[in-house]
What we know:
The protein is an all-alpha fold. The protein has four helices and no strands.
Amino acid sequence: MDLFWDSLVGLLALFIGANASNLVFKIRDERYYGIYHFAGGFLMALFLFSVFGNKWLALVLAVVTGLLWEIYEWLLWKYFLKKKKYKPQRRDTINDLFLDLLGALAAVIILLLRRL
């Protein structure tokens, strides 16, 4: 496989794993999902790099994707879940975005080192 398909399959596996953890195993601790955000930022940056061929654009778009995901989580709570225990917390959102950024940065660093 190539970078495009590897990163796409990885993103799908993360999505399925996170939803299975939540729905099947009832894991709702935000600390558990930190690794998903880091790996998601990492894989999203690799995926976007494989599409656009620009490391810095991939970094920015990976962070924007993380931001859009957090907006999606808030809208999901606001219009469907409506339970206090599911309400996205400010600290959790900031941590998630930070981990998305760290994951995307790690991917860009690896891409830079690979070219050396």
